[in-house]
Amino acid sequence: MLKSGDKVPSFSLELDTGETITHNTFKNGRSIVYFYPKDDTPGCTKEACAFRDRFSVFKEKGVQIYGVSKDSIDSHLKFKSKYSLPFPLISDPDLSLAKAFGAWGEKNMYGKKSFGILRSTFVVGPSGTIEKVYPKVKPEEHADQILKDLAL
Fold first, then answer.
1. CATH code for the part of the protein at 12-149
2. Which residue from 44, 27, 49, 61 is spatially nearest to 147, judged by alpha carbons?
3. Exactly one of 21, 32, 33, 44 is catalytic; which is it?
4. What's the pLDDT tens digit per position in 37-68?
5. Rounded Cα gap, residues 6 and 100, in angstroms
6. Which of 31, 32, 56, 91 places its Cα 20 to 30 Å from the Cα of 119?
7. In the chain, where are the structural domains located?
8. Helix ranges restricted to H, 9-137
């Protein structure tokens, strides 16, 4: 998993808006990049809605928010529409971004081991460098924790 001080790895993927996002996008200011397992599932919905509910505070402070999962653009569009999410979602169908950030690995859920996206968040500074890493998050509390940690 990337750690504080690491540079964002080179990548190019599609946003739900149809635009392309690259590692250079993060040089335009501070960004939150959060990885989540699947659109419209209970924990992922709680996390996305927590970011939605605090979006105006992040935006006012110039912080961009990007959610990342392997879901398709179509799935992202439905998820955004259903919950009125005001920030872009990145489609990572081959998990290249999740793997580059270290947000893909073995998980243990109810005693069953599997591989998947590890719910994690990265705060990226305007130089494209990781400022803070949240390797394990509580979906419903996470947005508030970031606001507190960044003193926003």
1. 3.40.30.10
2. 61
3. 44
4. 999 999 999 999 999 999 999 999 999 999 99
5. 11
6. 56
7. 12-149
8. 42-53, 55-60, 73-83, 96-101
